[in-house]
Amino acid sequence: MTLEVLNTIASIGTLLVIAATAIAALGQLRHMRGNNQIVALTECREVLESEGFMRALRFVVRELHEHLKDPKTRAALMQAPLEEELRAVNVVGNFFESMGSFVKHDIIDEAIAMDLWSGIVVQAWEHLVPALGVMRRIAGVGLWENFEYLAAIAEAYTASHPSGTYPADKPRLKVEDTWATEDKALGIYTPR
Fold this sequence. Notes:
The protein is mainly alpha-helical. The chain is 74% helix and 0% strand. It is flat.
């Protein structure tokens, strides 16, 4: 064998080693991305299930509408930082702002986020948007734009999955509402 043939074989061998290394590196990057996504999903779930967040969400869903009827509340929403009694507005809005950024930048997969949290995103958005309108008078349209993005894709997702995402080719389990008759008689249940 000539020196040129040996050099060619060595070059091809080097190329194969570099290609194999690049493929392995891509696999490791994909694995790292998956691990980062698991961490982000876990952190989001932990916040959503925390007592502090649940308390803030209850305020936004059950009480904020009545507070917004008071001009003093609307004036307070235009002041930064928000007063203590309105802190729940920021707790909920800022959390979904972060989640929206995670989804927008592919830290959390959009399909997974929507499958898990589209309902709560839409609910929070619908209850916060009147306050956001007031807050944007001063802060501008950039305030909670990632939350807005998340809510837009969540609304589209729920509209395209009106009966949920249970696989159509899989049988459903029987779920019996054993309290329906009694609750209907008590007036605490109205069938859809």
